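Letters spell out the chain; backbone shape is given numerically. Both lines appear below:
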Amino acid sequence: MSQYDFDLITIGGGSGGVRASRIAAGLGAKVAVVETDRLGGTCVLRGCVPKKLLVYGASFAGDFADAEGFGWTLDGAHHDWGKLIQAKRTELDRLAGVYQGLLDDAGVAVLQGRGVVVDAHSVEVAGKIWTAERILLAVGGAPYFPDIEGLAQYGITSNEALDLDARPEEIVILGGGYIAVELAGVFAGFGTKTHLVFRADKVLRGFDETMRSGLMQALENRGINLHPNTTPSKIDGKQVVLDNGTALKTDAVLGALGRRPNTAGLGLEDAGIRLAKNGAIIVDALGQTNQKSIYAIGDVTDRVNLTPVAIAEGQNFAERIYGGKTRDALNYAQIASAVFSQPPLASIGLTEADAAKAGEAVAIYESSFRPMKNTISGRDEKSMLKLIVRQADGVIIGAHMLGIDAPEIIQGIAIAMTAGATKADFDATIGIHPTTAEEFVTMRNSGRNSR
């Protein structure tokens, strides 16, 4: 008989924690998941899924406008925000049930309540101590507000923004990251007068400069009021005062100014687990903390904060520990990502600036054009594509796209890059015509060198 209640206790029932737990259980481990909310975590309940549903809804406004150029007349179109939010809630309920079913089918116990780490092998849940040979921390991250006067009192986070009972007529969104940009597109698409306030000169710091510039123009063309190089100094009820003296009247203030690892109140310091200054759990390449029986995956480690990464880390952990399989650490240097802005932006690998910083001698291939759809719709919006090619061997080390279907297209490019594709491989590929994606295999003569 084991000296512990479980072989594994996972704290956090999000995508990464559920994947790790059900794989471990399928490999014979006795597993429990601790969760305070419904199963599904940030991605399913407060992030990727509800956001994408709202992005889909908002995108119809652009489609309706474009349709006129193709001969359609749309009279009386209007949107029912409450109906959309209810449909979204119903879908999230369904998905939470799916996650519960996955754990039930795998034989995983679900312990409802806040999990607190007591020591290297003990977790307290709702006043009861449970023990396990190993503990996996998969509690994710949460929005936070910096110290701006009035923000904590009057502001909302992305959590609330995705579940508002009524759509605001005017909103001020603070931040220039992917959450701020995506939600700006959502509210503007539904007809809300939208202000985007950010301290940098462009949105999406860390993405390729060409794509950032293109998106700035597209956001403005879509009716979003941009306030670059600006920070809020005070929020006073329904007014946001900026550091340049501008006062913006608004119905809602959305603070999208960053997220932090959700480690407060978990008892980690008392259990001797090392944390970074921002509260992230410090782990080695395979997710192990300084307490050898305790591991962490996903956003709580603040490595690459993407749901598919957490899922891959969870599966890697379970198969290595309970399946006896040899698993190397994930390659965090080449992971595709997307911003579901309007239009969307997607990327994998190095940006041009990254390559220069790394001292890589590269050739840059770029294409910028008005998509065929826009030639008739009348929308003055371009698609932009870029490849970063290492000169030494012709291997593609970066790919970036802004425009319709960018995430779907970059996913295919990511497979090729993971397999080590070269520019010559792309050149030898016959494109599908007429598509935007074919531009990635027809960029022959636009190369320029950069270092």
